[in-house]
């Protein structure tokens, strides 16, 4: 069991985490026809917008209530109402997702009460649009908590409490924020290969997959439909991916009675096998031939990659669920986690991270603990530390803005694990250090020939 070391610094020197409101907005972006709204100042929204835009290289629909100095003093209910009605009239979204910021939460505003009043008094104007609130102050938690709270809010606010009919082929899948666009597409195809009908919430593969519509759409396009969220109670089983999704899975079970199974990770042979066994049991169908072939390809990749990964020292910095996902992957390939840094210490998953300690901190902590490691694993803001330490960097998580196509990187199940083995092995091969001019050369110095002569004499 890992020992969790709390944050001791009063300031982040090189920040690792992104804020809760950004995580909530990220989740709302996985809904078809959605418009996330930051309830706070314009500056808060602009910063999140820049990060999302740089990561996905897409136009991001994100709005703000634009609180000013007067609203901060006298209250912000009027700004919230005006923003909701303006968005409804101009963009006609199917969902407006309200993400509170530190500015509102610090004043201890009764945002839930204000929103309930707005929905009651403006019911006619808001017909056809769901309005959901996620309480996500910047000063607490990180992107993982914001994502979880937004998904929970959508289930509690939209899903019908009880459903009489259960579709034996329908399953609900709740992916964590660290499940990429490619992962979700692969997960859907895998479930459909068993004859199942998955509903994925949120589904960023439909909204942030890089497609270009033939006309301007002011909201998200693609993603989970509001009708599917409303009918989640018709599913026979819920699959939650990551400890962060336990809370929304429990909310769905409490509301509709749909049981859930939680997977800490879907990366690695053992974890992928567990999901395939579950899909086999639910569908009563054998694993398709392409799935079995992918498993054999992974086994071969593990044999090939073991020579490059075994014994390597890895330093990782990420959100708790992704930290566990990659730490479990590396140790499964024979590597050692010598430094593990995360954003918050409240997640239960940190207790089973395969490392001696997990430090709650920032990228300066990673740089302090990483010397001697063979690989740094974090997002793009870790590139300066990697350069100073002369250690190669594997980019994961959010944001990744100095590489293209990060959202299309596959990281789960047999194919994703196979691809990651090849990626890491290739990084090590590309960064092998050649002997320096001052290092002894056994061939040039004659040591190798002397060893051969000694060996020959010993045999005689």
TrEMBL record:
GO MF entry, a single one: nitrogenase activity
Domain (Nitrogenase/oxidoreductase component) ranges: 19-428
Annotated signal sequence range: none
Superkingdom of origin: Bacteria
Region (Disordered): 433-460
Pathway: Cofactor biosynthesis; Fe-Mo cofactor biosynthesis
Biased composition (Polar residues): 447-460
Stretches assigned to coiled coil: none
Assigned keywords, A-Z: Nitrogen fixation, Plasmid
GO process terms (BP): protein-containing complex assembly
Gene3D superfamilies noted in UniProt: 6.10.250.1090, Nitrogenase molybdenum iron protein domain
Family assignment from sequence similarity: Belongs to the NifD/NifK/NifE/NifN family.
Function field: This protein may play a role in the biosynthesis of the prosthetic group of nitrogenase (FeMo cofactor).
Annotated protein name in UniProt: Nitrogenase iron-molybdenum cofactor biosynthesis protein NifN
Phylogenetic placement of the source organism: Bacteria, Pseudomonadati, Pseudomonadota, Alphaproteobacteria, Hyphomicrobiales
Gene that produces this protein: nifN
